[in-house]
Specification:
Blueprint (H helix, E strand, L loop, with lengths): L2 E7 L2 H5 L4 H25 L7 H5 L1 E2 L4 E2 L5 E7 L4 H6 E2 L6 H12 L4 H12 L1 E2 L3 H29 L2
Helix pairs in contact: 2-7, 5-6
């Protein structure tokens, strides 16, 4: 992935018990649930262009990866190169005209408007959509509740042994 978000568990108490199947299963479940939620929040905020390529490229990792030291990571992101400029915006630049013509025809009904759009981008740049940043911010309380729920399941299942 070129750009995206990763959620990592760095809880030392849990990492000490990382080999315990109950802990591993619940941490994997929590990370998957959290990253899928974040992914939905990012997608809600992603601009839909003429081709919908960027929106369609944003995906959550299907599996949690184990890292050294017992941490686990889950990812959501895009491999589309223009994902970064859409997220962060751009400085003024001379944009390629062909995609702008297609966009102007589809969105504005006037392909000639692409030249005015291009001139504005050359003067002002583009504003970022901040879909990853805002999607993650909007997910914070839900992520916390997901990890609290799975933490309680870990505690309950370990006590049942």
């Amino acid at each position: 992935m070129i750009y995206g978000i990763e959620i990592t568990n760095n809880c030392k108490a849990l990492n000490a018990r990382k080999r315990d199947p109950i802990v591993r299963q619940q941490m994997h479940a929590a990370l998957n649930e959290a990253i899928l939620y974040v992914n939905r929040q990012v997608l809600k905020r992603t601009p839909v262009g003429v081709t919908d390529v960027l929106h369609g490229s944003i995906q959550a990792s299907p599996h949690v990866r184990d890292l050294a030291g017992g941490s686990m990571v889950a990812l959501t992101g895009t491999s589309i190169p223009h994902g970064i400029p859409v997220e962060m915006g751009t400085k003024p630049h001379w944009a390629p005209i062909a995609p702008l013509i297609r966009w102007a025809e589809e969105k504005l009904g006037d392909p000639d408007a692409a030249f005015a759009v291009r001139a504005k981008i050359a003067r002002e740049g583009t504003e970022g959509a901040h879909m990853f940043e805002e999607g993650l911010k909007a997910s914070q309380s839900k992520i916390k509740s997901i990890f609290e729920k799975h933490g309680l399941r870990i505690k309950t299942r370990l006590m049942e042994r």
